[in-house]
Amino acid sequence: MADARRAWLKRIAALAAAPADDPAGFERAFSSVKTGQWRRILEDAREHFLLPLILKNLRKAGLLGAVPSETRSRAEEEAAGMIACTSFLYRLGEGLIAAAADAGVTLVPVKGMHLIPLYYEPDERPMRDVDFLIRESDAGRVKELMESRGLRLETGRFSAAFMTRFMGEMEFSSADAAFPAMVEAQWDIAAPPYLKRGYGFDAGWVMDSAARGGRLTAEAAVVYAVFHLGAAHSFSRLMWLMDVHRLAVRGVGWDEVVDAAGRFGMRALAACALGFCEEFFGAPVPQEVYRGLGRRPSRLTERAVVECLMHRRGLAESRLVPFLLSGKKTAFLRAFVFPGAGFAALRYSAPPWKAFLLSLSRPFLLAARLAGFMKRGNRRGGA
Question: Which of 61-75, 179-193, 209-223, 358-372 tops mean pLDDT?
């Protein structure tokens, strides 16, 4: 069963890869899809945010007509909506960068805002939100800037205090926009206690790499993308794997990546992410890189990654994968199971006594979540 799931994911990845890069692989992937499977293929592609890219590849190869008309029409409509949303969000992001520059504040684009148009055409990589790195010391000025542009601080999911202290970011939204507009201003992707103690990720190093020119270096972009993909989101989306692939194809100083991975306690994480990028998308990763990162992940870890990519929500939210790949497993587990009463008080907006009880019940809640890992569902998180 695990091998079949892995093969299914590789089929979707092969359809998303450019036909010109591997014509034989693309043709094999296309030929292996039976007529009745196209609906599920394209539904899964949508969940992984690869739908516009796969449709574009099929169209360029002259093969889109092989998709049943009803399935094709629905998929093209969904892809058009994703592209229109991306175009709107990208223009919003550009406006925010310009306004920030005028105000003397640095917004460093990451994820979709960084990758378009350097690594993707605008109609290839969907965005669901706009992501920036900022200095923590600039948080107040960034908040004022966002509010001046009609964006409000989002407090629906968690309190603002919890987001700033334990998530290292602020989320802003606007209900007046043509599309749901979400902007994230982040200063520490490793702010959650279990990531802080289980890894040694230095968000300041990533930000410093953009000191000249306002954009991340290729090496910092790879390190950030790997940590975001594997540690923050438990390998829950193929598109984030493809992001690492696109960065690798354009050329990366691998010695710097290996050195940063060692300093940040993410050698195993990087080896796992790069291995899947190479397997699924053919990323050109030299073998010396793997030797520098150390041994490849265990079969258990690889199986867990595949299950997360199959959208087993409970498994992803249990954080089993970043735990298995952590360089400090004991510290990771202790901080994840018992993050402290302060965490619970802000997380659940509870008084101290109730927060203490909630912190004690956390192990049982996590066990129940892990037990339901076979539940299938979309992952929360922007693109």
Answer: 61-75
pLDDT at 158: 76
Spell 161-174 as b/e; 16+ CB within 10 A means b: ebbbebbbbbbbbb
Higher pLDDT, 10 or 181: 10
Place of tokens 């306004």: 99
Sheet holding 130-133, edge to edge: 108-110, 130-133, 181-186, 169-174, 152-153
Global pTM value: 0.90
